[in-house]
């Protein structure tokens, strides 16, 4: 329950409903928005939230739903179910269009079965009766008019009307020409009077033409005569028109009779289309205010993460201004937050944001806050906002406040949210302060949740040492004397009355005089609050600086660890390769020695032969010898190495393909293996020097990797540096496999992640341009990256 009822209007919920109505495409949807209410059933709330969230997903990422237009078919069904009544051509056409929309939408969801389960529940067990469409199509054409061949009799009547009209026209044209030849006709041509085609005749000649006079001109000089010969033909046309109308009514009555058994299912289609329009409007409004689906709990808890007042979001978009987000929490240990601070510092807005978002969630609406925000299902919201003085009830402003406080203290419980703006005002602070403190103590004992704004120092002190209460303040820049609209929990805030008065321009003499009139204790309290506020601002700035530096350090450490892991892996690969080379060299040397000994034995120790074999052995061993780096001869200067070239490692003689060139380093590939070497450790080789098996290994690896390449990455919910790392990996692979583009899904939010990602990608010369996704498929929540 909401108490008092006008709290919904004061918190801005009526404006929210008006915003949703603007997206409805039917009167039924608008009527349903009017019925939005504060509900306390967890299952119902979560169902409504999920339906809206699924529709929002469809709008942002899927194909558009085939919703064009539909009408209030409930009213038409009510009319059709009465025996003897019939629907008009236009009404049947409205039923037809509405059913087409309903069937197209059902088909849309059937094609995506299981993807949007909460929206599918809207038409669960709802059959598709296409026989209704077929019956209407047989009678009504694509423009909503009855077909000429709806019945054989109707066709005959229409043909007879056409013939009679043709005969009447031919006859009147003949008479008109004859009257012209006799100079009986006034200026002008054939004209229609009382639905009959007439000839304009000069008044003095009216006796010369037999017929029926239907009208005369204002001057009386011209009369409009329907010739006698045409009169009977026109009467025939009129009779045929009546007959046509009777036949149309008979056909429509017959069609209505066929429709009557389907009235119950038409009601079901009406309900489905109405709910669909309603959920669609909620989803579109959610997109307008950057709303998301929060976490819904049954325990008494409230956590707002980067929450914004939806009406401020709407007005901020129009004025191109950003809204400062609100972060706060309430739970079993911190149930009531007492917010203090300067006037116009944002206290009331913060309190109203909490109340409005809680009501929106319990009305099944998404809210402009991060998805990790948490809301509980409350039973009551009590609000005391603004001036409720009443002349009729003989209540002053303070009396009105007290009557609400009485209700709050008597009816609050652990499932209640209490919102009080400017607590204790309206009477002498000497007495208003203690009464407010007593009320606060009673509400706290009831274990209600609450957000209360105040300037009273005694309440700040009371909250400071009372369990369940927490001070909070709106941060104020006391150097530039301007509010920052940031809520900080844990410390009370000063009202900055003298500082603001000084900024406005009140004289120093007046301010000093005012200071001399407040008691010493109050001066001490205000002075202490100012010092705390100043320290808090300094700590806040330092905290932000430390967080930035911490992120930089974490990034450097992570990059360092990645490089370390990379070099360790590279080192292991090189050692492994060297061992394999060494084993092969030893194996070849042993084989050579064994062959030499065998040849010496077979030559029976002939000196010349032995000498020759030894020389061959020495040459072969010399060829396999690994020379020290210092003894290497200077190579001739080779051609520039680029990506795609083949190179040979000087140390081992292995051949690899160049994947990327980075300054003095090369990224090379041995089949699936990747390694980094210096340019001076390799020499370029021609295609003809590369063994076929090496080419094949690299070709297969590259092709398989390219086939596995995924040109889309979703970084929503990631931290900035994690997202950039993933995107960098995808960019490397895209460049390696010569891909033209890839897609980054980062979401909209406040646009911080999008800006970070786009600024990062712009640094790469390989990136040609960045573009938004189409507005129907995600808009600026998705970035297309096109490579050169």
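-> sequence recovered:
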């Amino acid at each position: 329950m909401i108490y008092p009822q006008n709290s919904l209007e004061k918190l801005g919920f009526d404006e929210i409903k008006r915003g949703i109505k603007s997206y409805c495409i039917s009167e039924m949807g608008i009527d349903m928005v009017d019925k939005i209410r504060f509900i306390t059933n967890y299952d119902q709330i979560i169902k409504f939230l999920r339906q809206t969230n699924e529709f929002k997903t469809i709008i942002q990422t899927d194909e558009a739903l085939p919703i064009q237009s539909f009408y209030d078919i409930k009213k038409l069904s009510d009319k059709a179910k009465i025996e003897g009544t019939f629907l008009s051509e236009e009404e049947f056409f409205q039923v037809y269009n509405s059913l087409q929309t309903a069937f197209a939408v059902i088909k849309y969801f059937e094609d995506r079965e299981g993807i949007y389960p909460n929206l599918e529940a809207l038409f669960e067990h709802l059959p598709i009766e296409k026989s209704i469409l077929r019956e209407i199509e047989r009678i009504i054409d694509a423009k909503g008019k009855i077909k000429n061949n709806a019945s054989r009799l109707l066709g005959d009547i229409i043909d007879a009307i056409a013939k009679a009209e043709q005969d009447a026209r031919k006859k009147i044209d003949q008479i008109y020409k004859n009257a012209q030849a006799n100079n009986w006709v006034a200026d002008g041509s054939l004209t229609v009077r009382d639905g009959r085609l007439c000839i304009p005749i000069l008044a003095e000649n009216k006796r010369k033409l037999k017929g029926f006079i239907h009208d005369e001109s204002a001057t009386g000089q011209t009369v409009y005569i329907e010739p006698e010969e045409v009169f009977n033909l026109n009467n025939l046309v009129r009779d045929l028109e009546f007959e046509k109308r009777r036949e149309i009514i008979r056909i429509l009555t017959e069609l209505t009779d066929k429709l009557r058994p389907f009235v119950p299912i038409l009601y079901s289609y009406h309900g489905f289309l109405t709910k669909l329009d309603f959920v669609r409007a909620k989803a579109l409004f959610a997109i307008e205010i950057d709303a998301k689906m929060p976490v819904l709990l049954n325990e008494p808890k409230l956590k707002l993460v980067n929450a914004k007042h939806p009406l401020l979001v709407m007005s901020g978009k129009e004025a191109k201004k950003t809204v400062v987000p609100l972060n706060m929490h309430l739970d079993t240990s911190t149930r009531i937050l007492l917010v203090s601070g300067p006037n116009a510092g944002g206290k009331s807005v913060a309190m109203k944001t909490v109340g409005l978002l809680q009501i929106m969630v319990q009305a099944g609406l998404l809210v402009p806050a991060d998805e990790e925000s948490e809301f509980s299902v409350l039973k009551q919201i009590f609000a005391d906002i603004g001036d409720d003085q009443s002349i009729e009830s003989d209540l002053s402003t303070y009396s009105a406040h007290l009557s609400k406080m009485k209700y709050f203290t008597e009816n609050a419980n652990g499932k209640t949210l209490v919102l009080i703006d400017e607590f204790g005002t309206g009477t002498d602070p000497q007495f208003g302060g203690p009464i407010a403190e007593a009320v606060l103590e009673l509400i706290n004992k009831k274990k209600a949740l609450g957000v209360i704004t105040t300037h009273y120092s005694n309440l700040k002190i009371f909250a400071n040492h009372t369990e369940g209460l927490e001070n909070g303040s709106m941060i104020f820049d006391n150097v530039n004397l301007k509010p920052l609209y940031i809520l900080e929990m844990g410390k009370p805030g000063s009202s900055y009355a003298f500082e603001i008065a000084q900024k406005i321009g009140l004289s120093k003499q007046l301010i000093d005089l005012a200071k001399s009139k407040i008691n010493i204790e109050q001066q001490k309290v205000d002075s202490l609050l100012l010092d705390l506020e100043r320290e808090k601002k300094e700590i806040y700035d330092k905290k932000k600086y430390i967080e930035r530096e911490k992120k930089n350090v974490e990034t450097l450490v992570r990059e360092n660890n990645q490089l370390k892991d990379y070099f360790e892996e590279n080192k292991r690969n090189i050692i492994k390769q060297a061992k394999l080379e060494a084993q092969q060299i030893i194996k070849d040397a042993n084989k050579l020695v064994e062959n030499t000994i065998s040849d010496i034995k077979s030559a029976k120790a002939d000196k010349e032969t032995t000498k020759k074999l030894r020389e061959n052995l020495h040459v072969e061993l010399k060829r396999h010898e690994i020379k020290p780096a210092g003894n290497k001869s200077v190579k001739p200067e080779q051609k520039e190495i680029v990506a795609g070239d083949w190179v040979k490692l000087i140390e081992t003689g292995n051949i690899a393909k160049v994947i990327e060139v980075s300054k003095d380093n090369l990224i090379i590939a041995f089949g699936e293996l990747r390694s980094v070497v210096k340019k001076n450790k390799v020499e370029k080789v021609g295609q003809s020097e590369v063994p076929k098996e090496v080419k094949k290994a690299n070709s297969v690896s590259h092709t398989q990797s390219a086939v596995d390449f995924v040109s889309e990455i979703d970084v929503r919910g990631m931290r900035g540096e994690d997202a950039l790392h993933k995107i960098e990996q995808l960019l490397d692979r895209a460049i390696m496999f010569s891909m033209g583009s890839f897609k980054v899904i980062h979401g909209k939010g406040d646009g911080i992640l999008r800006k970070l990602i786009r600024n990062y990608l712009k640094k790469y010369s390989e990136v040609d341009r960045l573009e938004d996704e189409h507005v129907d498929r995600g808009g600026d929540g998705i970035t297309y990256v096109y490579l050169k």
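Residues 751 and 781 are 8 Å apart (CA to CA).
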